[in-house]
Amino acid sequence: MLPTVEKDTVVLQEAQRLYGLLANVSKTKAEKWTLADCLAAAPYTLAINRIKKEKKAVILAHSYTTPDLVYGVADFRGDSYELALKARESLAEVIVFAGVWFMAETAKILNPSKQVLIPAGKAGCTLADSMTGLQVQALRAKHPGVPAMCYINSSAEVKAACDVCVTSGNVFDIAQKMPGNELIFVPDMLMAENIEAELKRRGTPKKIISSGGSCCVHDKYRPADVEQLRLKYPGIKVVAHPECAPEVCRLCDYVGSTKGMVSYVASSSDKVFGMLTELGLVNRLEAEQPDKQFVWPFGMCSYMKKNSLINTLQALAEPRPEQQVSVDGIIAAQAKKSIEKMFELAI
Ligand code: 13P
Ligand code: SF4
Hints:
The protein has helices at 9-22, 35-54, 67-72, 80-89, 101-110, 133-142, 156-160, 171-177, 189-201, 223-232, 246-249, 258-267, 279-288, 309-317, 329-346; strands spanning 57-62, 76-78, 94-98, 115-117, 148-151, 164-166, 182-186, 207-210, 237-240, 254-255, 272-276, 293-295. It is an alpha/beta fold. A four-stranded parallel sheet has the order 2-1-3-4, with helices on both faces. Strands 6-5-7-8 form a four-stranded parallel sheet, sandwiched between helices.
């Protein structure tokens, strides 16, 4: 049975706490979070925070999940690199990962003795689902001796078939550190083009051999979106995630990871930013840097948004089989090597 939710004045206080954090945050393109939204969320955040303590659980939330999770119940919010580190060092008995499947799988690989739960169940990712471990092995067989690097947005099998894993925050630096003048990079074919361009710009060129797919959110941005933002908001700074196409990245003022974008905006004296990324990151900036204006043309990850307060409460109370993360031992051990190699090279 699910735990009962609070029905008294504590709820009102909790709603006010949430509203204090979310009043400036966009719920959709046209609406902000309201006190009524926070009143509806409050019984759940109270119940989740209570059961979280009872079960000695920690909640890690990717910035792309909804703000009621990010600000209402998460112990840590961040990008895939930051959350992988938090999962690896966690002393909690249960790790609840509000994110997509490959992120929760990475947490389990890094901290296998913990129970790892993902409220959204088998929430995919168009990148992680674009390639299998066998396909990586076949690609490597075609290019013997070429080191293989995978994006963290990949399955455990793909990680196990590669030498090193990277995230958007360290992809360029680690690619530069890899030996030789050729490098296999999977499964983001647009990011592969961005790596090749960035290494050329740094004067350390490499041929990048790639296969896989693209992110269904970031691959939708076109050069015309940047041009329209510049036309409508003269002086705007446009920032993009490196999962965007190279012809888009080329036109932007900053290209970087979720964390990189937060730092770029924080350290800038500019006031208006065009955000070629997922709504959740725009929400974080609205909450944390309210003196600035964020223009978000479009872009929402339906996989990330499968996490909700309701399924987080349910997963903590009575996890369904698809919410409990397990990884085959042999694959996990091999995948761990490529993730640990990233931590070593990211320094
Ligand atoms: P970050 O590594 O920047 O968190 O990105 C993960 C992701 O899925 C972006 O679409
Ligand atoms: Fe995957 Fe794109 Fe969603 Fe990130 S935003 S989880 S890359 S589908």
